[in-house]
Amino acid sequence: xxxxxxxxxxxxxxxxxxxxxxxxxxxxxxxxxxxxxxxxxxxxxxxxxxxxxxxxxxxxxxxxxxxxxxxxxxxxxxxxxxxxxxxxxxxxxxxxxxxxxxxxxxxxxxxxxxxxxxxxxxxxxxxxxxxxxxxxxxxxxxxxxxxxxxxxxxxxxxxxxxxxxxxxxxxxxxxxxxxxxxxxxxxxxxxxxxxxxxxxxxxxxxxxxxxxxxxxxxxxxxxxxxxxxxxxxxxxxxxxxxxxxxxxxxxxxxxxxxxxxxxxxxxxxxxxxxxxxxxxxxxxxxxxxxxxxxxxxxxxxxxxxxxxxxxxxxxxxxxxxxxxxxxxxxxxxxxxxxxxxxxxxxxxxxxxxxxxxxxxxxxxxxxxxxxxxxxx
Length: 376
Hints:
Its cofactor is pyridoxal 5'-phosphate. The chain is an alpha/beta fold. The protein has helices spanning about 5-10, 25-35, 50-60, 70-80, 95-105, 115-125, 155-165, 185-200, 225-240, 255-260, and strands at about 20, 40-45, 65, 85-90, 110, 130, 140, 170-175, 180, 210, 250, 260-275, 280-285, 305, 315-320, 330-340, 345-350, 370-375.
């Protein structure tokens, strides 16, 4: 919670649940990433929070952008960034979307299979492509599935096809898992990338770039390492596996760029118990999984929750959203300790919610409005 957010909530008193995001925090985060890995280009993961104010600020600071759709490409261009600062990082693209991005000037695309290479060769001739490889994500609070990426042994075949079809076989990418708390997590993946570089060189194709993805955490309930610690560990791993011939490198921070910049203001709608002998209280908020807090699924992300009564005695509480859907329960397996004095109508502040909230909010589910957003 920054002073600017606190003052905004005190003076504006916005109605209903809302996210308030402080651009000063985003600015500080960008500078921190740029300093931690000075020879690495920062490609902000737009999907984390595509607010126009965020994109405009980062474009002015010199950031590049990782996009997942043509819509995001257009948003970045509207914010003032040139197309040569955009990567189309989604490995699942319609051919007409590839063509549209190419028409808009994008020349950097992700792939993870031969069929995607063929689409890009037809729709975006001569473009640079990088092949995403699978990574186990050990140490991440939100490990990624096998939806994106191919087995490392497949990557040379995919990249060689790109070369044969007239594309620029540019490099390799990976993602070590979201909210990655292990600063050494990049070491094994960079070793794998270096091996692919060597195999491609043996095939007469020189790769240039390693996209080291995101995974940089934001602080929720637990402490996380400093960005500089990640930078030091990544540089050590690059030197270990690539020696004096370091490749071009990219990172794609999303959560780490905007997560700690935002706070959601919510309200207690109801407090109840399920039986007379059940000590656990149910606290229902006016926001839930369908209106921005989807990352509470499986209780993977546990947000800090603040109230005006935090110095009072506390009791275990299940926290749920307001909708008529039984899935809309945020924390039940591990209840939260909330003040006994918390009452209906009280305001609660859900911190570190700047990433993956507004875009997860549904449009009108159960008649509730989407999560409002204020960028200050």
